[in-house]
Design a protein that fits this description.
alpha+beta
């Protein structure tokens, strides 16, 4: 059985963070920090009652990509020092954390 495709239009992005609407997985940056904050996994990794669900790695990858694009496109909203580390491999970019799936539950 396959997974549900992750698409850009499934995300809400604001200066206050990014949310994957179908799973409620989200990242909320700390004030003044573009790439450090609180990550909630919402329903990510839970078995969907009607069959296939979202692959957690796909959701996290798209979330990280969209958030990085948003930060780079809106430099006035974030610290200038943070923007130097805007590429996805930058040191200090500690989001999103690794999520391990144990059976049907994310932890």
């Amino acid at each position: 059985m396959g997974n549900i495709l992750v698409k850009r239009d499934q995300f809400n992005i604001t200066p206050h963070g990014i949310v994957h609407k179908p799973t409620d997985a989200s990242f909320t940056p700390y004030p003044g920090e573009a790439y450090r904050g609180i990550t909630r996994i919402g329903q990510l990794g839970n078995r969907h009652p009607n069959g296939p669900g979202f692959k957690p790695d796909d959701v996290q990858q798209m979330m990280r990509q969209l958030w990085t694009e948003y930060v780079v496109s809106n430099p006035k909203l974030f610290n200038a020092t943070e923007l130097g580390g805007a590429d996805s491999g930058a040191a200090g970019f500690d989001w999103p954390p690794e999520i391990q799936i144990d059976g049907d539950q994310a932890r």
